């Protein structure tokens, strides 16, 4: 259950336990108090690509925040009186403020998606443990909702692997309130943010926990979703580096791991980016081999032909024509 006091600073959250334990800690109440305080203002913000974000922030009039969206969406430095005093106090209590000369800057930002509020890392996401949220996230959730709207059976148990801020799993928890949904991530900061985001969305059936893929999650699943990192990143930041050939390593690993965890008629929905080389899709070939070997029915579609075009200028992508977004949907046969 969630208890929200009249004073947002006193917000207390007690999760309704899933059969799989949530990682909620009392220390997260300060972050939840901040999220609740932000939501109470009617805040709305759509997060754009990092390159577009940098261009907008570089405009002369945007060097300093003038409102709450500038502070918590655009991640601009700000003067204390730009936001309400109680909100500044909530940020202070949550430990998300840092000084920048005579100004302040928030270390978190908030995005809205389909009526829900999501806490994630401030721009720019340069830290190794940064938690990503961006245009891909909106497309990922759209793909999940499209699948849920057309599903034939019930979802009793689901997992969001590499959950990040948790939007995929939270979308499932909203659509399937009777399901147990695990938000799994190896990044402790992502797990904290996902737990807070599930709480502020009022989804106690979404349980966040530290897990390297399925390492801390037992049993099988009716639905597994994942939007893993898929680029080659020299700093190997958790939210960005996919490893393997042209960033596809983690996505292939997730496909192989999920195959072993799907219940009869269970489905994997994987949303990822792939490098196209001389008109060929090496990821598709590798995914098809793994799925065909396991006897899994699958479909594959390209949803955006050209993303992160700036990456093509970097050494790892000198052989690539483009980077595309794709969705893999793979379903295990029903029991005989």
Automatic annotation (TrEMBL):
Alphabetic keyword roster: Methyltransferase, S-adenosyl-L-methionine, Transferase
InterPro entries per the UniProt record, alphabetical: N5-glutamine_MTase, SAM-dependent_MTases_sf, Small_mtfrase_dom
Pfam families from the UniProt entry: MTS (PF05175)
SUPFAM superfamilies in alphabetical order: S-adenosyl-L-methionine-dependent methyltransferases (SSF53335)
Family annotation (Gene3D superfamilies): Vaccinia Virus protein VP39
GO annotation (BP), single: methylation
Gene Ontology molecular-function annotations: protein-glutamine N-methyltransferase activity
Domain Methyltransferase small: 155-270
Domain of life assignment: Bacteria
CDD domains the record matches: AdoMet_MTases
Full protein name: Methyltransferase small
Originating organism: Rhodomicrobium vannielii (strain ATCC 17100 / DSM 162 / LMG 4299 / NCIMB 10020 / ATH 3.1.1)
């Amino acid at each position: 259950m969630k208890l929200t006091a009249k004073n947002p600073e006193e917000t207390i959250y007690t999760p309704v336990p899933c059969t799989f334990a949530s990682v909620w800690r009392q220390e997260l109440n300060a972050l939840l108090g901040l999220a609740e305080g932000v939501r109470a203002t009617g805040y709305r913000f759509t997060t754009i690509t990092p390159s577009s974000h940098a261009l907008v922030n570089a405009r002369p009039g945007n060097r300093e925040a003038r409102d709450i969206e500038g502070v918590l969406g655009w991640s601009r430095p700000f003067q204390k009186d730009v936001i309400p005093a109680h909100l500044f106090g909530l940020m202070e209590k949550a430990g998300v403020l840092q000084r920048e000369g005579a100004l302040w800057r928030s270390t978190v930002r908030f995005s809205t998606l389909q009526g829900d509020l999501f806490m994630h890392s401030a721009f720019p996401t340069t830290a190794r443990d940064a938690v990503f949220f961006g245009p891909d996230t909106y497309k990922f959730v759209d793909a999940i909702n499209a699948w849920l709207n057309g599903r034939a059976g019930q979802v009793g148990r689901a997992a969001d692997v590499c959950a990040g801020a948790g939007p995929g799993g939270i979308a499932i928890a909203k659509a399937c309130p009777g399901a147990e949904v695990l938000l799994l991530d190896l990044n402790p900061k992502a797990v904290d943010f996902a737990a807070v985001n599930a709480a502020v969305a009022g989804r106690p059936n979404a349980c966040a926990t530290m897990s390297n893929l399925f390492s801390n999650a037992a049993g099988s699943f009716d639905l597994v979703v994942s939007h893993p990192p898929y680029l080659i990143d020299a700093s190997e930041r958790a939210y960005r580096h996919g490893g393997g050939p042209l960033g596809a390593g983690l996505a292939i690993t997730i496909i192989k791991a999920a195959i072993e965890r799907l219940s009869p008629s269970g489905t994997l929905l994987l949303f990822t980016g792939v490098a196209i080389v001389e008109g060929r899709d090496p990821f598709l070939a590798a995914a098809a081999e793994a799925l065909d070997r396991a006897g899994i029915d699958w479909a594959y579609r390209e949803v955006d032909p050209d993303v992160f075009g700036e990456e093509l200028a970097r050494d790892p992508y000198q052989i690539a024509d483009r980077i595309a977004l794709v969705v893999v949907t793979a379903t295990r046969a029903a029991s005989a």
